[in-house]
Amino acid sequence: MPRQSISFSKPNDEWLKSQLENEEYSSKSEIINDLIRQARKQQAQIDWIKIKLEKSERSGFTSDSKEQILNHSKSLLNG
Predict the structure, then answer these.
(1) Residues near 8 by beta carbon (within 8 Å), at least 6 away in sequence
(2) Range list of β-strands (E), 1-79
(3) pLDDT for the residue numbered 7
């Protein structure tokens, strides 16, 4: 695994130390890797939502009622 040297602001370093003291993690590296994983997962979710919104915008408007849209969505989810 590649090694990196990074600097933290005082509040961030104190937060990292508190995580270690609480025994949430065994090392600062573990914390940073977990934070990066969370950020990557969040970005993947944002990208998915963005794609869905863009697709929806391109599909145009509908004259269906809220109930019809809801029923159609549920039928798609339930197969």
Answers:
(1) 16
(2) none
(3) 95
Side-chain-facing half-sphere of 77: CA atoms under 13 Å: 6
Query: For the chain, how are helix, strand and coil distributed in percent, rounded to 5?
Result: 70, 0, 30
C-alpha to C-alpha distance for 5 and 78, rounded to whole angstroms: 49
Non-local (6+) Cβ contacts of 28 within 8 A are 16, 20
Closest CA to 25 of 6, 7, 9, 38: 38
CA distance 43 to 79: 28
Segment 71-76 mean pLDDT? 92
State yes or no: pLDDT of 79 exceeds 80: no
* Cα gap 31→16, rounded to integer Å: 7
Q: What is the pTM of this model?
A: 0.66
